[in-house]
């Protein structure tokens, strides 16, 4: 009897912590779901140097799949990786440009195809370059418009250590009081915060090399690399009631 209870408890635990992975939206598709469609964008991949393609590691979500797992566990649905290059250095902005295009077209296509049969509920995640890309997917930039016409389908989001972070807005999470290396301008960031702060958090920890523009040091780099780990539980707690 005790043993049976023990096994049942283990089974429950196993089911509720079964990790969701995030295959590419380009290869796995985006079937219409009444659950959540989580679209997640990885951070920079130092190995990739072609900006207008998908990077070889673009399905590695660097811990963000733990957030996706918690949300899919509650609401049903699935996670997909944003197909983009996440290239470094001189290819950084071209890579983001391609990512914005991919993100906006993925969201528009999903909503247009699915809204007559399900209630589209999209959750966006992004780490580092992925957070900057997802921010621009929502508020435009680099020649792209905002996603204003689709904002009601964005159920929630969490971005971690985005270099386009701007400090001291309601949408911000974490404790940075300084803005990022590629901080967005006040007009577009104010639009971001006003439109999405009830359902999205843009996390940045004080001292982060990129999102807090804290300068290059081992400690600043460690803070940046640890960002998803540092804030994923807070992200889950914030998003859980929304999905
Ligand atoms: C990315 O993929 C390449 C092979 O395509 C591999 O050598 C490299 O270690 C991967 N990078 C990361 C950060 O996992
Ligand atoms: C910011 O938050 C982190 C994590 O909670 C903490 O370790 C750090 O001391 C805080 N830094 C500042 C400057 O408040």
From TrEMBL:
Among InterPro entries, the record links this protein to:
AB_hydrolase_fold, Cutinase/axe
Q: Which residues form the signal peptide?
A: 1-19
Gene Ontology molecular function: carboxylic ester hydrolase activity
Q: Which UniProt keywords apply?
A: Disulfide bond, Hydrolase, Signal
Q: Name one Pfam family in it.
A: Cutinase
Report whether Disulfide bond shows up as a keyword of the record: yes
The answer, when asked if Transcription is one of the entry's keywords, is: no
Q: Which domain of life is it from?
A: Eukaryota
Q: What is this protein called?
A: Carbohydrate esterase family 5 protein
């Amino acid at each position: 009897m005790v043993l049976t209870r023990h096994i049942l408890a283990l089974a429950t635990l196993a089911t509720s912590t079964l990790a969701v992975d995030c295959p590419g939206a380009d290869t796995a598709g985006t079937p219409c779901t009444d659950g959540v469609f989580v679209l997640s964008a990885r951070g920079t991949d130092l190995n990739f140097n072609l900006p207008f393609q998908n990077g070889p590691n673009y399905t590695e979500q660097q811990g963000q799949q733990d957030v996706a797992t918690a949300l899919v566990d509650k609401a049903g649905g699935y996670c997909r990786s944003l197909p983009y290059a996440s290239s470094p250095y001189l290819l950084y902005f071209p890579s983001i440009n391609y990512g914005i295009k991919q993100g906006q077209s993925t969201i528009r296509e999903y909503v247009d195809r699915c809204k007559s049969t399900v209630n589209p509920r999209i959750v966006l995640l992004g780490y580092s370059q992925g957070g900057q890309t997802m921010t621009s997917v929502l508020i435009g930039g680099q020649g792209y418009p905002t996603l204003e016409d689709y904002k009601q389908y964005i159920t929630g989001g969490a971005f971690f250590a985005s270099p386009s972070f701007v400090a001291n807005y309601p949408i911000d999470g974490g404790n940075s009081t300084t803005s990022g290396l590629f901080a967005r301008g006040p007009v577009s960031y104010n639009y971001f915060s006003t439109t999405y702060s009830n359902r999205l958090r843009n996390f940045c920890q004080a001292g982060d090399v990129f999102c807090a523009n804290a300068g290059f040091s081992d400690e600043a780099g460690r803070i940046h690399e640890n960002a998803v780990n540092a804030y994923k539980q807070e992200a889950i707690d914030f998003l859980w009631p929304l999905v």
